Every structure is written in structure tokens, then in C-alpha cells.
Amino acid sequence: MWQLCHIDHTQLNLEIVCATTGRGLGRPWLSVLLDAFSRRILAVVLIFDPPSYRTCMSLLAECVRRHQRLPQQIIVDNGAEFRSNYFEVLLAHYNVTKLERPSGQPRVGSLIERLFRTSETKLVHNLQGNTQGMKTARQVTKAANPKNHAVWTLPDMYEQFCRWSYEVYDQMLHSTLGQSPREVYLAGLNQYGLRPNRHIANDEAFRILVLPTTKRGTAKVQAGRGVKVNYLYYWCDTFRRADITGSSVAVKYDPHDAGIAYAYVNGIWERCICERYVAFQGRSEREMLLATTVLRQQLRQNRQQVDINAKLLAAFLASVEGEEAVLEQQMKDRAVRQIYGLTKGKPWPAQLSKDDNVKAQPTFDVQALELYGDLEL
Question: Please, what sign has the CA dihedral across residues 240, 246, 252, 258?
Fold first, then answer.
């Protein structure tokens, strides 16, 4: 129990619609953290974006929010998201060992693969809009197309899947165990104890820890402009001090809100506001990536050698081309933010107030981060 756990992802066979417009948003990705001993589901994350470091960090944050601890060992496959610098640094900080499945031995991941099959047959395939019939797409008529019958929104589906995972499946008789996962878990808890030494506080310091940083991990404080993070400059009043200007500080940013970043100054994580905050507030990292990609293509087609900056990017996002490029991603991000609103503790500290500066030591090795490669997206 809590000794060995599995993490994996799968795309649900269910079409999701936007709660506001009713437009189809596609099939979401399900990520699960499963305890190998009790077969109990410890954490669930449901988002639209393909698996990435954001998914892994959010899943571990959800585990800490629910249980105030992390497993001692985690088994993962060879996906690129599990080789993310942020994921490995977080595991190393809490002394969690990452184990990779050996290639050509699918039985190592059979526990979580069986869970995925059970969730599909017991829950997803019974819902309106499921894509089970699309396995024989040529035989599916327009009237039977699941996209025309989709009614589930992402927040509603997440709430139902959490209820099934933490209540229904948790108390189902497991044929291998001869008991339900909850009974096995409680029996192990009585036998081996709570292990309070593994407790992790779900506080602001932890939520800062799960945030990503830049390629170098630090940024130079420029007079009158602040620190530069991913094309944008961020500012806080502490940067006015003469002894801070020109120094390099550790930085982190919120992947769900481009308007906010954090700088580690004098033992405190200071909340910094982006230039042109109105234009970038609430925009996710993936939305900004889509916008910069389209903008760079336009500049290349016009043979313009211009560096992308906040003014240029804000003007593009305000244009028709910019709105069209990120419209679908905005609807998906809006649904994900509604999911975070359903939880009591936020996996990401986007909602921290301007006074919630965190007094904590840096939780990563800045020199080590300088050796890392490009940012994983």
C-alpha cells in the first residue's frame, strides 16, 4: 500500500460538448494514479490536451490534495511526458522512485490497463455519445453518429467519473483480490499504519513547486521591465530595489494563466504581473503556444524578420486570425477551469491573491536546470 503505484493515460470513448455553445470538443484524455497493492484509484484527472508534463503534475497535485502524500515508487511507460524535467524534479524532491516498464512486456502495466477496460464497459459505454460503435465507422449512419448525440460536458463527466472511481469502483468486488479495493486498502492501513513521515502539506509552497519554470530556471531582473518569461515581461514592486535590479532570480509561471508568474526574491516567491495583463490574463500555455505558432508562420510567409514580443502577440490575439486560431482551445480551457472549480484545493495556484507570496526555499536545483533541454509541451 503506497509502495508501488501506476500512472497511465487513455482517451475516453466519449464525445464531449461545450457547456455554453453545445459545440463538440472531441474526446478527453483520462489520467489515473492506481495503487498496485489494493487496486484503489488514488487520483483522477480529465482534460482535453494530450498527455504532457501538465497532466502528470496535475495528477500528483490531485493525489496530494486528496491524501496528503505521494507513493514511494511509480511505474510509468516510456511516454515523453514521464521524462519531463518538472516531473522528475518533483519526484526527486519527495524521494519518489520512478520505474519504467520494460519494453515488450505489456503484462507489467496490466493492472491499470484492466482498470481502463473496466471503466469503459461499466461506465463510459453506458453513456449517451459514446464512440464504441465507431470501431466499424463505415457501418455507422449519420443518425447513429455519436457526435450528434453527445450531451456530456467535461465538468459533468469529471464529476461522474470521480463518483464512479472513489465510490462505486472502490466498493466493487475485485475478482483477483476477493475483496473490494477499499477493504484491502483499509486492512493494509490497519496493519502497516499511517506512516506520518510521508505526509505532504497541500499548501502554497507545494502548489508553487508543481509549477513549471523556464529552460534555464532563472531570469535577469531588468530595470523598469522585470523578468522575461516565455516572450513576456513580468513585474512586481520588489524589482524597484537597487540591489535586485540586474540580478538573476529563480522564476516559475502558471501554465493555466499567462498573466501571472512568480519570482524567488529574498526568500519569498513574489507574484508578478505580466505586461499587457488584460490581453494575456487567463490564457493557458497551450493557447499561447498555438498563437505564437500561427503568428510565426504569418511572419515567415510575409518574409518579416521580427522578434515576437508582448505588443505583437497581443495585437495578433485581438485580430480575427488570432481569435480563430485559439477559439477551440479557449473553450477547452474554460471547461478545464470549471473542473478545477469543483475541487476544494486548486492543483495550480492561479487563484492565489496578490498578497499570497510564499516564504520557502527554492525546491529545485537551478544549476541542474540549466543543463536541461527545450521545454516539453
Answer: positive
The identity of residue 245, as a single letter, is: T
Residues 6+ apart with CB under 8 A from 107: none
CB 16 within 8 A of CB 147: no
Cα distances (Å, whole numbers) of residue 205 to 36, 54, 140, 186, 198: 29, 18, 51, 30, 16
Average per-residue pLDDT for the chain: 85
Is residue 363's pLDDT more than 80? no
Identity (one letter) of the amino acid at 192? Y
- Is residue 24 helix, strand or coil? strand
Burial 324-342 (b: 16+ CB within 10 A, else e): ebbebbebbbbbbbebbee
Which among 39, 75, 61, 53 has a CA at the least distance from the CA of 200? Answer: 61
With CA atoms as reference, report the closest residue to 124 among 115, 59, 34.
Answer: 115
Has residue 325 got a pLDDT over 60? yes
Q: Looking at the DSSP assignment, which residues form a beta bridge with residue 218?
A: 250
> What pairs with residue 226 in β-bridges?
222
pLDDT score, position 36: 93
Alpha-carbon distance of 365 to 327, in angstroms, equals 37
Average pLDDT over residues 28-55: 94
How far apart CA 270 and CA 187 sit, in angstroms, is 44
The pLDDT tens digits for 283-324 are: 999 999 999 999 988 888 887 777 888 888 999 999 988 888
Q: What pLDDT sits at residue 134?
A: 66
In what order do the strands lie in the sheet containing 41-47? 41-47, 29-35, 4-11, 73-76, 97-100
Q: What are phi and psi of 131, to 5 degrees?
A: -100, 25
Instruction: Kindly state the helix (H) or strand (E) to which residue 155 belongs, with its residue range.
Output: helix 154-163
